[in-house]
Amino acid sequence: MILFISNSGKSLPIVSRLRRESTDAQIYIHNPAYRKRYDGMLQKVKQSELKKAVKQSDIIVFDTTRPNARTKQDITLLKMFGLKASDPSVFGSIGDLLKQDHKVIGAGKIAEDLENKDFGVKVAEKVGFAIPEILDGVEISTEIWMGLGGPVHYNNIIEDKRLMSGNLGPSIESQSNTVWFEEPMPQLKGMAAFLKANNYIGPCSVNLIIKDNIPFFLGLTPGFKYDAIYCLFELLKDRLTDFFEKDFDVEFHDNFATSQRISIPPYPYAAKELLKKHALDRVIEGDPAKMKHFWMQDVYSDLGAIRCAGSDGVLGVVSGRGDSLGSAWGKVYSGIKKLKIGADLQYRLDGFKSAEKRLALFNKETVV
After folding, report:
1. Best label site of 92, 112, 122, 204, fewest CB within 10 Å?
2. Model-level pTM?
């Protein structure tokens, strides 16, 4: 069994895809505010059932980190695994404990250390990255996928975090993404060697700015990088199950993959009342099994109808793959037009233009 341990259930669409491949995949959602997601669509592991589920698992995936916020759920979970309620980490400490008997992807104290800016800078300097004083250049991330024996592959990510076209509006977690494969720069191989020496398994994104052929280090993001991970899965030639069971060592299409996040306005919501008024229970028409390129997130099923669960108003992510950047983005927007949702949709219209501009600048500034 593959068990996902998630804070907000962002790996729910991944678990759903795995189950469609007849793989025994389960998920525990830690934050109660997100537990309505996928109700009526798949059965989730309750907190009281988690320890039993862990024992039955072959692979345990932590899709994010979770510092101890001293919530009831945090304290209960730590005590469940024999850890102190005062432990500064929840997923990190539990992940390290479970590594003694299981294959664990993500999590661990090292993952939370990597998120610490000062720690990340020290590591980056050791492997040869420059540290910027002025942030000016082409921003890009390279995701390193670490298997049991070391780095398995590297993929580049161009991401737009601003909600609106033209990079206007609030900065959110992720709005548009472009992913492709390319030979990694030497410093990334040094970072991979550090991760291997610290027994880290899973993805870790190195966030950079490229200026005058010099890669400047911005930070590290251990764990799944949403929404770019859906682009990566668009490039898979093999089953999603194989990706996890074969230590990420599978074949990919040598193409571009792109994605656009779909939300219901006025996301991001300033108050829960607005979320309830505008997003909750909005209907999504269609069969989820046939929506191969729509990774649904904040949804649930009620009497056969797919509705918005009202956790945050992000319905999901539409992804596409193409031989060129333009064809990949064309498939994304074609997929968006096919969505039938009983609400106005919110997404950027300049996904291709923005990615094209930044990719051209990146190629100009690429480290030789």
Report:
1. 122
2. 0.95
